[in-house]
Each structure stands twice: as structure tokens, then as C-alpha cells.
């Protein structure tokens, strides 16, 4: 079973406004609400691709109830831990450009921290855990590293999609996959990544630190996969960018699903890219039919 874990979920409140004027009343032309947070997005994409998963993490209040309700209606199993404060609302403002304001999120008690460790301890080597997104405001920066250590010791395959110190602290626990975008990768090494060559070079340095697979996602420039067997770049198909929120999560969902379905490295990269791009070309997350339509357009270039 694939498990996703979202420590700091959200409702994503999408607001389209033609021309925002700061300091004035602005009226939206369109609004929508989606359950959000990176792990939850992975679960939602997996469900759309026809695969089951169980969503773990913390949820609270009326906003948490909305997330539970939408996931239940989509048939997505969850084993969330209920917390006292409401789950945050993240504003995704669309004005021709995409502007995001993410909330802080609900605080977690020590007891709630332990409850999550108990749930993760119960996973087996046949399972797969996807840990994704930011940490709740009062949780210590090594929280992901403690979960990664637990997975490493119990041989539970895991993926971490996060950035900064939280990402740095898990690398030596040999995650199955890390997927920084080019900015997050640059931030780790204190450089600005401006070319495919630099993405490959720093991606290789990241791979040397322990992860079995590194995918450096490059937005409209595709992504690079680096592992012990291959270094390959995939382009993106043509399409109109409607929404990049969740594109990275869709790439992770597609790659994981293809990997657990025993597809080879290049097929898994291709499938991940198709999912990421199908989301970028939709208002919400990708649908399976759109993913399948894009697959033939994706070209893989083996770099070594
Ligand atoms: N403009 C675009 N056109 C086509 N595909 C895109 C575009 N932007 C993103 N994608 C697809 O989504 C994948 C992930 O995108 P990106 O590198 O922006 O990840 P990310 O920064 O983690 O995204 P996010 O945090 O917004 O989910 C890309 O590798 C690509 O397949
Ligand atoms: O604040 P975080 O946890 O870094 O990111 C949260 C978030 O921006 O990521 C998802 C898209 O990847 C959205 O659903 C959600 O609002």
C-alpha cells in the first residue's frame, strides 16, 4: 500500500481576479476550494490514476472536516490524526500570474507527534511512504529526519518532497526518491541553477549523499532523473499552462506509481512528467486520460 503523509495540509482557495489593487476592494471572477498539501495531492493524483493510497498526517477544525469529506467522496482512505487547531487555508491568487499565500498551519502537540510515529512504525517493507510538504509551525526542523531514520531502520521505502534543512537532514537515510525543483536544489548547495548542465551536476552531488533516485524538476523545461543506472532528461509536452500548483506532487505520484508497478526508470520518468504536465494544463490535478494523451509527446534524452 502507498501511504502519503502531509504534516501541514491545507485547503487551497483558488481566487481568480482580473486586476488586483492592493488597498482596494477586489472582486473575484472565479473561486474554487480543493483539499491541498503535498501528500494529499499525491493521494488525489494516485486515485485519479486508479491506484489506492492511505493519507496520513494531521488535520483539524472545519477546514480539516472539508478535506476528510472530499477525500471520502473520492474514495481515498485516510488515517489522519485530529488536532485542536483548524487546518490552514492557502490562497492561490490567479491574476495572469500565480501568487501564493500559504498559511502557517496548525500546531502539533508532543503526544500527536508520537501518534504519527506509532502509525509509521506499523508500516511494512512492502509499503511505500511519501512524506511531502512543510512542517507545522511548532515542530522541530529534524522531524522529517526522525521519520526517515525510523523508515531506514525498518526498511520501509520512503520518499521525501521537501526543501532546505528538512531535506538535508534525511539524505543519508537513503530515501527512494527526493524531488527538489531547480531553486530548491540550488538553495541546498548555495548556488543559483540556471542551466540543464548545472541541474545535472548538482543533482549528481545530491545523489551521492544517499537518495536512490533524484529528480530535479525544471518546470516548463521538464525534469532530470539521476540514479545508479542512468542520467536522463525528459522534455514537457506542449500545452497551455493553467495551474502549476500540485504539478510537482503529480510528478512524484506518477513516478512512484510507475515504480511500484515495476516500470523501468525511463518509463517512470516519462509517466511522472506526463502527470506533472497534465496538472499544469488543468485547473485542478491531472486526470488519467489527459496523462495518457500526453505520454507519446514526451521525449527522453539519455545523458549518461
Ligand atoms: N509550464 C509547464 N508546462 C508543462 N509542464 C509543466 C509546466 N510546469 C510544470 N510542469 C510539469 O510539472 C513538473 C513539476 O513542475 P515544477 O518543476 O514546477 O515542480 P514544483 O516546483 O515542485 O511544483 P509545485 O511546487 O508548483 O507543485 C515538471 O517537471 C513538468 O512535468
Ligand atoms: O506550504 P507547503 O507545505 O510547502 O506547500 C503547500 C502547498 O502550496 O503545496 C501544494 C502544492 O504542491 C498545495 O496544495 C499547498 O497549498
TrEMBL record:
Keywords in alphabetical order: ATP-binding, Kinase, Lactose metabolism, Nucleotide-binding, Transferase
GO cellular component terms, A-Z: cytosol
PROSITE patterns the record matches: PFKB_KINASES_1 (PS00583), PFKB_KINASES_2 (PS00584)
SUPFAM superfamilies for the chain: Ribokinase-like
The keyword Transferase belongs to this UniProt entry's keyword annotation: yes
Catalytic activity of the protein: D-tagatofuranose 6-phosphate + ATP = D-tagatofuranose 1,6-bisphosphate + ADP + H(+); beta-D-fructose 1-phosphate + ATP = beta-D-fructose 1,6-bisphosphate + ADP + H(+)
Pathway: Carbohydrate metabolism; D-tagatose 6-phosphate degradation; D-glyceraldehyde 3-phosphate and glycerone phosphate from D-tagatose 6-phosphate: step 1/2
EC number: 2.7.1.144
Domain Carbohydrate kinase PfkB: 8-281
InterPro entries found in the cross-reference section: 1-PFruKinase, Carboh/pur_kinase_PfkB_CS, PfkB_dom, Ribokinase-like, Tagatose/fructose_Pkinase
A GO molecular-function annotation: tagatose-6-phosphate kinase activity
GO biological process: carbohydrate catabolic process; D-tagatose 6-phosphate catabolic process; lactose metabolic process; small molecule metabolic process
Purpose of the protein: Catalyzes the ATP-dependent phosphorylation of fructose-l-phosphate to fructose-l,6-bisphosphate.
Annotated family: Belongs to the carbohydrate kinase pfkB family. Belongs to the carbohydrate kinase PfkB family. LacC subfamily.
PANTHER family, A to Z: 1-PHOSPHOFRUCTOKINASE, 1-PHOSPHOFRUCTOKINASE-RELATED
Identification of the protein by name: Tagatose-6-phosphate kinase
UniProt source species: Anaerobacillus alkaliphilus
Phylogenetic lineage: Bacteria, Bacillati, Bacillota, Bacilli, Bacillales
Gene that specifies this protein: pfkB
